[in-house]
Each structure stands twice: as structure tokens, then as C-alpha cells.
Sequence to fold (95 residues):
Amino acid sequence: MLRKSRERISAVQTGTRNRRRIAVLIYSMTNAIIFGAGIIAVLNVSALRANAHIWIPVVVVASLILAAPLAWLIAPRLQARYDRRRGGTNNDRVG
Fold:
């Protein structure tokens, strides 16, 4: 019983570790997408463009902050795709 519990904890830790690694890899790409969308919004809306010196730093900070949780949510989907190809199973899948 104790051995099964340790194996389960080890599997969860490995799944979380892999999820964290994938999230770190896609963080910069997620950040770039959010930043690009924000800059396009600032430059295309005339009211925001008038105060671009305020809104561009807001977009930079917001993209840095929002990219981390978004990358964390995307990571299991990429991991699940890899596991399906390999035929393996993973207990750390979301959705």
C-alpha cells in the first residue's frame, strides 16, 4: 500500500516536472503572441494611440504576467499530443 502511494506521488511529480519544462519552453512564444496582440490594439485604436507612451509599457508588463499562466494551461495539451504518439499514458492531463 505504501509503495503504491509512493509510486503515485513520483508519477505526479514527474508529470508536473514535465509540464513545467514544457511551459517554460512555450512561455516566450506565448508572451510574443500576447504582446503582439496588445501592440496591434494600442496602435489601431486612436484613443490608445494618443497615449501610447502609457499603454505600450502596460502591454509589455501585462504580456509578461499573462504569458506564464497561459503557458501553464497550454503545456498539458502539448504533452498529451506527445503521449498519444508514443502510446503512453500520463496522469497529469488537463481537459
User: Anything to note?
Assistant: The chain has a mean pLDDT of 84.
